[in-house]
Amino acid sequence: MTVAYGPICQIAWVTEDIEATEQLLSKQFGVGGWVRMPNIEFGPQTCRLHGEPADFTAHISLSYSGDMQLELIQPVRGDSIYTEFLARSGPGLHHVCFEPGDFDAAVASAQEQGLPIVQEGEMSGGLMRFAYMDGASAGVPYIELGKFSPEIRAMFEHIKTAAKGA
Questions:
Q1: Secondary structure letter of residue 70 according to DSSP
Q2: What's the pLDDT tens digit per position in 86-127?
Q3: Is residue 22 within a helix (H) or strand (E), and if so which, with residue range?
Q4: Which of 68, 80, 86, 114 has the fewest CB atoms within 10 Å, i.e. is most exposed?
Q5: Taking CA 159 as the corner, what is the angle to CA 144 and CA 24, rounded to the nearest 5 degrees?
Q6: ∠67-28-153 over CA atoms, to 5°?
Q7: Rounded Cα gap, residues 127 and 150, in angstroms
Q8: How far apart are CA 93 and CA 11, in angstroms?
Q9: Per residue in 134-153, pLDDT tens?
Q10: 8 A C-beta contact, residue 71 and residue 61
Q11: Keyword Zinc-finger, does the record have it (predicted)?
């Protein structure tokens, strides 16, 4: 069975200083209109790390370069693939996100292909679902699959508009 993973919709970095990374991308590369969401909580009821309940907090900042969403993640509390990444390799490019038409089929297909799910969960009462797979053997630390509700898509469009106006 061939599953379409969809287009790449996001490139993300993990950083120890979200403001400094925003400034670098804004001043050097013209990315503007960052929307920062401080202290986003991922709880053990809706998130798993290495198959176990996860409880962590991160600052997240979003912007766009053209139609490509850029995400910055600064871990604040708890264990996550973000803290593991910083401990292993320091700040840097963390993942690309694909948006498959059938999220569940894409996750199942990835697992069948031997890509283990490292972290998964949902946010905002199920308005967004995500699954991260280890992509290091293919040259990218992680590959994320995302499923976004109409409400989350509307928020993304608002951020994209703000980025164009910056």
A1: E
A2: 999 999 999 999 999 999 999 999 899 888 899 999 987 889
A3: helix 18-29
A4: 114
A5: 75
A6: 25
A7: 8
A8: 8
A9: 988 778 899 999 999 999 99
A10: yes
A11: no
